[in-house]
Structure formats: C-alpha cells, structure tokens
What does this fold into?
Amino acid sequence: MSASPFTVTPLVRRNMRRELAARIVLGAMVAAMVLPLLAIIAYLVAKGAPLISLKFLTTNPTHGMREGGIWSALLGTIYLVVIALAVSAPIGVLCAVYLNEYAKDNWLTRIINLAVVNLAGVPSIVHALFGLGAFVLFAGIGRSILAASLTLAIMTLPVIIASTKEALAAVPMSFREACWNVGASRWQTIWSIVLPNSLSGILTGVILQVSRTAGETAPIMFTGAVFFKKIQPGTLFAYSLTDQCMALSMHLYTVTTQVTNAPEPLPYAIALVLLGAVLAVNAASIIVRSLLRSRKKW
Amino acid sequence: MTASQTDNLKRPRMARSTAAIFGERIIELLIRLCGVSAIVFVFGIFLFVLREGAPLIGKLDWTKVLFSQEWYPTSKGNVRYGVGALIVGTLSVTGLAMLFAVPFGIGAAVFVSEFSTGKVKETLKIVIEMLAAIPSIVWGFIGLSVMNRLIQEYLPAPVGLNLLNGAILLALMSVPIIVSIGEDALKAVPDSYREAAMAMGATRWQTVYRVLFPAARNGLLAAALLGVGRAIGETMAVLMATGHAVNIPKSIFDPIRTLTATIAAELGETAVGSDHYRMLFLIGVLLFSITFVVNLLADLAVRGVRKQ
Amino acid sequence: MVNNQPKISVENLRLSYGHREVLHGLSFSVAPKEILGVIGPAQSGKTSLLRCLNRTIDFVSNAFVSGSIRIDGEDVLRTSDVHTLRRKVGMVSPLPVGLPLSVYDNVAFAPRCAGIKNRDELDARVERCLRQAALWDEVKDRLHTLGTKLSGGQQQRLTIARALSHDPEILCLDEFSIAIDPVTTMRIEDVLKELKSHMTILLVTNLVQQARRLADRTMFLWNGEIVELDRTEAIFSNQPRDKRTYDYIHGLFG
Ligand SMILES: Nc1ncnc2c1ncn2[C@@H]1O[C@H](COP(=O)(O)OP(=O)(O)O)[C@@H](O)[C@H]1O
Ligand SMILES: [Mg+2]
It folds into this structure.
C-alpha cells in the first residue's frame, strides 16, 4: 500500500464498516438465542409462580389431576434420576477409564469410540423402544421404575463417558509416568492420582446428566411412567423398584394433552418446577466446577 | 558373603498382600467389561428394536411402505402402513429447523469464540449450557401454549400447531449443540493462523471469513450434522407442536407428523405383538439407521479435524 | 558366588517405535556401584534406553523391544513382576514432577504402593529419603503442603527422594539438571557422590562436564548407537578413539 498505514483510506474505512456490521449481526444471532431463554423463563414464572407453594410440591394430585399438588410426580422423578445415575455413572466412569487409561490404539478401541459416538446419537424414542423390548418384555421386569431407570441409564451413558474421558485426559501424563516409575501399578496410579485429580470434571459431567435425565419423557413413557398414581405422602420411600411411577415430565405432558379443563396456571407451574429443578442442577454443576477449579493443585 | 548380598538380605521385603493384588485384578476386569459395554449397548439397542419388529418385515410391500403416504394402522378393513408422509414430515421439519439453526448457531459460535473475551464469553457459554438443558417436554409445552398463539395471531396461518412451530422449537433446541461443537472447531485452529492474518492487516471478520472458516470447515460441518441428528431424533417437542397430521406439507403453515412423534403417540395404544406394534418398532429401526449414518458422518468430519 | 558379575548387562538391545528403529543393537554392561555417564545429542535414544531398563516402555503402545537386558542376572524384558523391577530401578525424569500430594505423601507414595502401611516405618523412610536428597531441612516444617507448590529445584530433589523411597539398587537420572538452577544442580551432584557408595548410577546428562565430574565411565550415544564407551578420562582426553566423540565434547557438532 502506498498510503501511510495511519491514514484512513477508503479501503480501511470500508473494512471497519464491515467489521462493525459483522459484530452487530453476530451479536444479534447470539441475542436470538439468549432472549428466548429469558423470555421463556420470565413467562413461565409469571404464569406459574403464583400456584407454587410448599403444599403444591408435597401433596398428591387430586380430582383427575386438576387440583392438589405434584408430590407423586416429583418423587417419581427423583427415583428415576437417582437410580438411573447410580447405574450409569459407575459404568460410564469405568468405561472412560478404560478408554483413556488402558486402551491401546487399536481396532477395538476405535470401535468402542465409534459406539460411544453413536450411542450418544440414538433418538430418545428409540431408547424407549429398546427399554420396552429389552427390559420390560425380554427381561420380564415389567413396566416399572427399574425398567425406566435402566432405559434412562443407557441413554445417559455415552455423555458420562465423554465428559469423564475429557476430565481424565486433563490430568498431565507426567503424573502417571512418575507413578509408574516408582513401581505403582496402573490401577494404583489411577486410584491415587488420576481419579482424585479429575473428580471435579467427572462430577460436573454426572451432575449435568441429572438435569438431562429429569427432563426426559419419551424413554420413560412406555417403560415405567404412568399418568396417575397416588402415593403415601410424607415419606421419601413411597415407591418401590417394581412400582410404576409418575414423573414431572410425564405429568406436564399429561396435564397439557390428556386432561381437559385443567386450571390454566397448572401446566405452567409444573413446567416451572421442572425447568427450575433442571436449571438449579446446572447452576450447581457450574459452581462445583469453578470451586474445584480454583483449588487446582498444580 | 559379599557386601551387596548382605544389603539385599537386610533390606525389608516389599510385597503387596495377595488380597490387594487380587482386588486389583477384579477391578481391572470390571474396567475392561465396562469398556466394551458401549459396543454391547449399541448392538443391543439395534437388535432388540429389530427383534420386536422383525416378524412383520416379510409381510410388507416395502416400496408401498416407504413411498405411500397412507398411514392407516388401525383401519378396520384396509390397514395401510405408508410412512412416506412421516418421512417427509421428519425431513421437512428438520430441514426448516436447520435453515434457522445452522447460520445462527455458527454465527453465535464465531461471536463466542472470536468476538468476545473474559466475562462475556464465560456468561455466554453458561447461557448456552442453560439453553441446552431445557427439557424437550418444556419446549413442547411452549410450542403448544405460547408459540401456538403467537403464530395464529401474527402470521397468516390457519392453525398454530404446524411445521413452522416445530421447526422453530427444533432450531432453538439444536442451536446449543451447533454452538458448542462449532466453537470447539474454531478453538482448534492454531492461534498462529489468526496472528498471521492479523499481521497482514486483516480485520477480525476477514480473519474469520478467509482463514478460520476454511481451516475449521470439517468441525463446522460436524457441528451442523450433530444438530441434524438431534433434530431428527427429537420426539416430545415435535409431537406437541406440529399438529400431528399425516400430511405432505405444501407450506410452512401446514401441520405435519414425524416418525418419532408417531411412535410416541401410538405405541401406548397398540397390543404387544400386533402388526401395528411391530410396525412402530420398524420405524424405530429406520430412525436408528438414519441417526447412525448422520453421526458416523459427523464423526468422520471431526476425525478430519484432528488429522489436520 | 561371583562378585564381579555386572549389575546391568545389555546385549544387542534394539527398540523401535512402529517401524522406526531408534536403538540399533546396544551392548554394554555396568558394574555394581559404578556411575555410568551417558552423553549424546538430543533424539539419540537416551531416554528410550532408560525406559527399557525399567520397562516403562511397556506403556508406549507401538514400541517393540528385542535383545536382552539383565539386572543381577535376571532377564528384565521377560520378568513377570515389573513392579518389583521398577522398585529396583529408581528413575528421575528430566522435568521435576511433584505429584499433586503433600510432600510427605509424595515420598511415602511408592512404599505405600508396595504394601507398607506401618506409620513409623513410613515416617522413618520419608525422613531418610528427604535427607538423602538434601531436601529435609527445607521441608521438614511443611511436610503437609502440596509437593507441586515447591520451587522447581526443590521439586527435583523431591523427585529424587521419591526415587530413593523404594530402596532402588540402581538409580537412573535423565538430564536431571535441565530445568533447575546451577546451585541446586551442584547440591544434587554432591548427593549423587554420597549415594554412589551404595548404589549403581546411570547418569544421562546434557552437560558433558557433569559426566566428567561424576562418572567412572562414560558412554557416547549417537543416533541409537554406542559410538564410544570408555573410562571417563579416556573419553575426555584429547585423543578419544572416535573423532565424533571429540567433536561432540568440544561442541563442534552439527
Ligand atoms: N513415544 C514415542 N513414539 C515414537 N517415537 C518416539 C517416542 N519417544 C521417542 N521417540 C523417538 O525416538 C528417538 C529417541 O528419542 P529419545 O529416546 O527421547 O532421545 P533422547 O532422550 O536422547 O533425546 C527420537 O527420534 C524420538 O523422536
Ligand atoms: Mg531425553
């Protein structure tokens, strides 16, 4: 260029205009995602919040689900989430340990990785079909909390594997080598150095799956969730593993599509409880992550 | 005796207990089992879904099934299982959703990765995570209650539950995936590329457009494909928002029905072992196969990124 | 019993990563309580050689080793108990590695892995090893702070203490001074002179003068081959047998 680099030539001005335009357009695209989120939350709060009270949370639905609370659905969701993750977290973590710490770079490893990727992409309704075919019918468990939880467990497995793998890979290789050099076995190294130092990442991944599991509807529809079930209030152990249960997500579906002339704020309140629980769990995972990150040991 | 041998004898013998070594063997066996479990589950899903549907395969005229739009599974005299309209429904709502989600998702990924720093970036990432966390049933409810009314009021649409409604929901649901994978892809481009472009006087946008897009092409493609996979497999939101009419849409305001929604809506009403029941499982096999291919392609694209 | 049996004897050792051979048939032996210096330019296979000695080469999935390595007559490449082997061979890596554990746990790590649980024994061992590594005085009041928070030089001595904690009979040091200051380097060199009285030491070093100061014999490794292995004085004399040795030592290389 012949002009001095500090003069504002028409070309430079045009570039600057474009830069600004790009920034504005891209920013608008981000806003197009952020605003719906805020709008949805605000709208649900405005419509549903007045109905929510401790009593709403802790009483069973009554009068064909048009009145009363959501206790049986809330407790059902807790059962499903806890059991599903109690199954998938250990399997997922161990699978990630295998892939990151034991697997050699060979065809078996490649196939496992491919399987994980594809498992993550299986549609939730196909998981539902699988749960029905495998757990409910073939294994003879019947429609129950157990069958639904196992279905959810398999659905969350690939995501837990992926997030755990990432957490394990963040532990420097030099730590492992130092352990091997002093005669520690692979497992001793993993147990005393690798797992403790990737715990925050592993936990974050698992917690995120709590919110995903709580929100799922399709996989539990045909494997264990029912429209309505009355349970004994005031105890956390009102369901047993072989019972069918209500669930928040399913309850929202029922109230909006199956129940005629339910009071208008009711579905909003259910949606708000579900969304609130999910976002609270997410926030918790973010807090865990930043807390543990600030206590990083190296 | 030599000095070194006495040394050897005096030295306390280090040995782990047999129980500890045995325990370690067990846990390592368990780790290996869990390692291959992923393969078992993927095959298991395919086999069990196929197993329920298989007895019907021989009984169907497949050209009719795939291309006819006559889905009358419960008709008294003349049962017809044409999934043509359902396939078109799935493809149209996914396609329309991607028309919104891909540009917006990649634009947002660029903004997060290249045009924002520090607190803004952190906050945006958290917001995207939150957006990804909204359950599909809540999206479906939004579609049924809010979008339904908005569309009827402000757009020349006869019904509010239609292709457009479902597509907007699907777009919002798949955008977070596209943003996070797309951002990873952009982040994977070495900083030296950016510095080289900037040193030559390129603006940030020129750098994005001329350097980063070509360099991150595969990763961005993978992001879009994973978005597609998410949209094809989505069930509850489209079930509630698209109007649930077996119909080849002629405009974006027509109601439609997807493969996933059909299974969700009808499986509860079929008798185990009936033809209708088996047909729904075969639709499941079809869905599994489609998403399998899409995810395989996405994985190949991502692999391309790593090789670079 | 033969006392003049070599501590380590290596015969025709070949190592390849994938299809690329990086050690081309090394043969040498090391006498008990000898310090063997190993010098050579980067990428010549020094680290790879050490990895074969303690079998951590097993963790490199595409590595293939042939030939034989014997320690006290026992075949290293075929031993069934690699963990005991690794406890017999202490290893200090180029960059200091404090494990993300307390200073105490860093040193007690190996004994614990080996099954020692007795608190008094561990205490005694930790103190002894930290003293041997010339670190005790600096850390005795903060044994429970994180090892990763020590300075680089301290972490390298911590690494040495850890390598001593499992009573090795052979100590391998891989360019230990690469990331630490000269003062600490000299202190560690003094430590090595002390340790020489009860163990065999393999000193891989990037500083040729360090080999000259410490080693009884010195090996010049170049591109995966032993160019020369002789008494240190002979190597550093003005007429080594091979001209490449002279060039390397006098910095005339490449
Ligand atoms: N894990 C590995 N995979 C493949 N090649 C390797 C690996 N480690 C080292 N090498 C190669 O082996 C040769 C010797 O390396 P190394 O033993 O580290 O040499 P030095 O320690 O003398 O610098 C080098 O050419 C290096 O590139
Ligand atoms: Mg080296």
